[in-house]
Amino acid sequence: MVYKGMLKDGTLFAAKVFNVQLEGAFKSFDTEREMLRNLRHRNLTKVITSCSYLDFRALVLEYMPDGTLEKWLYSYNLFLDMLQRIYIMIDVASAMDYLHSGYSTPVVHCDLKPSYVLLDQEMVGHVSDFGIAKLLGAGDAFVQTRTIATIGYITPEYGQDGIVSTSCDVYSFGILMMETFTRMRPSDEMFTGDLSIRQWVSDSFPSGIHKVVDANLVQPGDEKPNTKMQCMLSIVELALSCTVVIPDARINMEDALSALKKIKLQIVNSRH
């Protein structure tokens, strides 16, 4: 449960209180506290302090006034245009690239999804919730875990064998991108049997991409609709390269971030 509060100096904060009745709650608190205490990046949620007393555990976090990416995608009265969505994806990719290669030990978030992407007053994205994150030891390409992340966002090798590596986050990021630009949850009831969000998007690529992208992003009266659709093709192609079934064949976060920045430039330049 997350509560909103205010310090004596007027600073707003978010208090994340852990339900200690749940199995693994103490471990989740310890993991998240240690991770966020040591990690420093503009696109990660900042910890102000933590509270640990008898059977009470809470993290006091920087408050994010614009809520979650999930809220912005699915609230009928809120809207993100294509450039806003790309900026948020760049923010998330920057955070993930830092976790994978900018910190002393690679960190795997393990549970990347829209409800864990928080937006500040400038609509800058911050990755949050490190409760099941894993540190990779020196020279380790992967670790094994029994902790299950959110179905729909996890890789085949994580779901089947509990194998966690940085490429697991890349896969989740690809699914996050698909969801952000289609406004379809990977858990939607239409995705049953062999049909996943990845398969649905892949089947439409490239000629039928207009059938799956969020219709609000490309309107009939838009200026330069061809440029927009070309950017959408690039976004979808990147998302598909993040979600290749074979882990070693996936793109890495550094290259994904670089590709997103190029797509952003295409859109910005097309507006002038």
TrEMBL record:
Membrane protein topology class: Single-pass membrane protein
Keyword Glycosyltransferase recorded: no
Top-level taxon in the UniProt lineage: Eukaryota
Domain Protein kinase residue range list: 1-272
Cited Pfam families: Pkinase
Reactions the enzyme catalyzes: L-seryl-[protein] + ATP = O-phospho-L-seryl-[protein] + ADP + H(+); L-threonyl-[protein] + ATP = O-phospho-L-threonyl-[protein] + ADP + H(+)
Subcellular location: Cell membrane
One GO CC annotation: plasma membrane
Primary localisation category: membrane
GO molecular function: ATP binding; protein serine/threonine kinase activity
Entry EC number(s): 2.7.11.1
InterPro entries associated with the record: Kinase-like_dom_sf, Prot_kinase_dom, Ser/Thr_kinase-like
Keywords, ordered alphabetically: ATP-binding, Cell membrane, Glycoprotein, Kinase, Leucine-rich repeat, Membrane, Nucleotide-binding, Phosphoprotein, Receptor, Repeat, Serine/threonine-protein kinase, Signal, Transferase, Transmembrane, Transmembrane helix
Signal peptide range: none
Protein name: non-specific serine/threonine protein kinase
